[in-house]
């Protein structure tokens, strides 16, 4: 059996979409499971939509997600170049071969790229009139010699059924009468997606084409091209759409769709990859948490469904929470620190951040939440929560807080155990329950009514900070 070779072939037109990440992931898993090759190819022939820096962003994002490609830009490989704009001569030669063999023709009437809607996933253009019989070969030669620009279109036969056996969708048939005479090479010398895609897949030895459902209408054109060139066809597998909760196609109108958006919000890469893997693929049991290695062992195209998969934020949050809880405090320090520093929070040791993370880890959903949930660890409260004040700061609260403050000042060992002992002893001396002291002391120390254990967080803050904050509260809250 020949080596399995698959490719992820994004266009550098912006940030990587979560749907693109899923396509890359499924290709990656399929290659790794079968000992194959995972190729990254940059399809940049649509120069109108090209965004400078987008390719570099794509590569960084794949690396962040742990999806290392075997061949592609930067790393190179034996079947390169892996950027389509560097392969223009090959596309031109293939287009000329099709013309010589009567499978394509020059079109002087329309130099546009009539597949732009399809390339953006919006479906087929209306069928155009066949044009191959409009001009004689002498007329074509005369107009070319005169310098008239011409596109190259493929000849699509009439009344033919074009069929594929898709791994996910089964046997699919297309009527050729509903397939356009597709532009293959534009008058500017750049190929359209269809020609470049087929040529590259052949010369890069791609054995399996795993891509989104939106490309299924393009497949009959590709099948015809493989037949016209006399090349073996790859195995096709078209993945289901990603959907919003209302089952419309996933779009930024209803939420974030770029992987970078989730990076910035503090989702862990392994959690996002785990979640994305389950959008269409079913492991066959109730498991939800998989490492990348486990996904590689378990993945199969046969367990990818046809129906659209809903992008459920509650599920993503649940998965991310579970991953956060599996990380050690020090592992999280390395991902929390950059987020804090972006907000100007600097100067805290790894040991201190590790203690903060230990106390707040059970209360956060994303890494960014550490900054909001534990803000009082990094600065004195700028204000006191209004609801907490109404509930927990009573007329007698200043007296209770002052009594605790006096007792804390005399502590030589400032630990959770000694703090708790002081608070309970002070409550007993005042003849009230400990809660009468704990709630106002928490409010004075953190500005909030909820959070980690009071005695533990006070130990982390340290004696000097706690004394200062209690003194400030007594001066401020009257």
Task: Describe this structure as you would to a colleague.
- The chain is mainly alpha-helical.
- The protein has 3 domains: 5-84 and 242-315, 3-Layer(aba) Sandwich (Rossmann fold); 87-239, HUPs (Rossmann fold, 3-Layer(aba) Sandwich); 380-478, Arc Repressor Mutant, subunit A (Orthogonal Bundle).
- It contains 20 helices and 11 strands.
- The strands form 5 sheets. A 3-stranded antiparallel β-sheet has the order 3-4-7. A two-stranded parallel sheet has the order 1-2.
- Strand 5 and strand 6 form a beta hairpin.
- The longest helix is centred in the first third of the chain and has 16 residues, at 18-33.
- It is elongated, with a radius of gyration of 31 Å.
Helix content: 40-55%
CATH topology of the largest domain: Rossmann fold
How confident is the prediction overall: mean pLDDT?
Answer: 92
- By DSSP, the count of extended strands is 11
The class by helix and strand makeup works out as: mainly alpha
CATH class value of the largest domain = Alpha Beta
Weakly predicted, low-confidence segments:
116-126
In one word, what is the shape? elongated
How far is the first residue's CA from the last residue's CA?
Answer: 81 Å
Q: How would a textbook summarize the main sheet?
A: 3 strands, antiparallel
How many separate domains make up the residues?
3
Task: Please give the radius of gyration in angstroms.
Answer: 31 Å
The CATH architecture term of the largest domain is: 3-Layer(aba) Sandwich
Number of DSSP helical runs:
20
Strand order, largest beta sheet: 3-4-7
CATH superfamily descriptor of the largest domain:
HUPs
Q: How much of the residues is beta strand, in percent?
A: 5-15%
């Amino acid at each position: 059996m020949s080596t399995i070779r698959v490719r992820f072939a994004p266009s550098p037109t912006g940030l990587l979409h979560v749907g693109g990440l899923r396509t890359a992931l499924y290709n990656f898993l399929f290659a790794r499971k079968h000992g194959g090759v995972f190729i990254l190819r940059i399809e940049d022939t649509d120069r109108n939509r090209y965004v400078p820096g987008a390719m570099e962003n794509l590569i960084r994002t794949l690396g962040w997600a742990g999806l290392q490609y075997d061949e592609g830009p930067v790393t190179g490989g034996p079947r390169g170049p892996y950027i389509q704009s560097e392969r223009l001569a090959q596309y031109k030669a293939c287009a000329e071969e099709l013309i010589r063999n009567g499978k394509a023709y020059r079109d002087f009437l329309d130099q546009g790229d009539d597949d732009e809607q399809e390339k953006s996933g919006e479906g087929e253009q209306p069928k155009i009139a066949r044009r191959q019989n409009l001009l004689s070969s002498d007329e074509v030669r005369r107009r070319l010699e005169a310098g008239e620009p011409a596109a190259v279109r493929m000849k699509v036969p009439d009344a033919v059924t074009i069929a594929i056996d898709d791994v996910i969708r089964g046997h699919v048939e297309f009527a050729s009468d509903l397939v356009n005479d597709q532009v293959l090479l534009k008058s500017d010398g750049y190929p359209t997606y269809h020609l470049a895609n087929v040529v590259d897949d052949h010369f890069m030895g791609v054995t399996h084409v795993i891509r989104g459902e939106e490309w299924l209408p393009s497949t009959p054109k590709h099948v015809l091209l493989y037949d016209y060139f006399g090349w073996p066809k790859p195995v096709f597998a078209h993945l289901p759409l990603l959907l919003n909760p209302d089952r419309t196609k996933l779009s930024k109108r209803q939420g974030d769709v770029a992987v970078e958006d989730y990076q910035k919000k503090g989702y862990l890469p392994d959690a996002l990859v785990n979640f994305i893997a389950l959008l269409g693929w079913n492991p066959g049991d109730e498991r939800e948490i998989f490492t990348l290695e486990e996904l590689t062992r378990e993945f199969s195209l046969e367990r990818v469904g046809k129906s659209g998969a809903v992008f459920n934020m509650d599920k993503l949050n649940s998965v991310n929470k579970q991953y956060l809880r599996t990380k050690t405090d020090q592992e999280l320090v390395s991902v929390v620190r950059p987020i804090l520093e972006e907000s100007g929070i600097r100067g805290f040791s790894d040991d201190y951040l590790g203690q903060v993370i230990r106390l707040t880890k059970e209360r956060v959903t994303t890494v960014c939440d550490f900054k909001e949930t534990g803000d009082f660890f990094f600065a004195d409260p700028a204000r006191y929560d209004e609801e907490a004040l109404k509930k927990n700061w009573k007329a007698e609260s200043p007296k209770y807080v002052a009594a605790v403050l006096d007792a804390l000042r005399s502590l030589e060992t400032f630990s959770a155990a000694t703090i708790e002992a002081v608070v309970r002893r002070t409550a007993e001396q005042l003849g009230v329950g400990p809660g009468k002291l704990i709630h106002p002391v928490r409010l004075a120390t953190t500005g909030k009514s909820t959070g980690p254990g009071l005695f533990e967080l006070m130990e982390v803050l340290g004696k000097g900070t706690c004394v200062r904050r209690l003194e400030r509260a007594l001066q401020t809250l009257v």
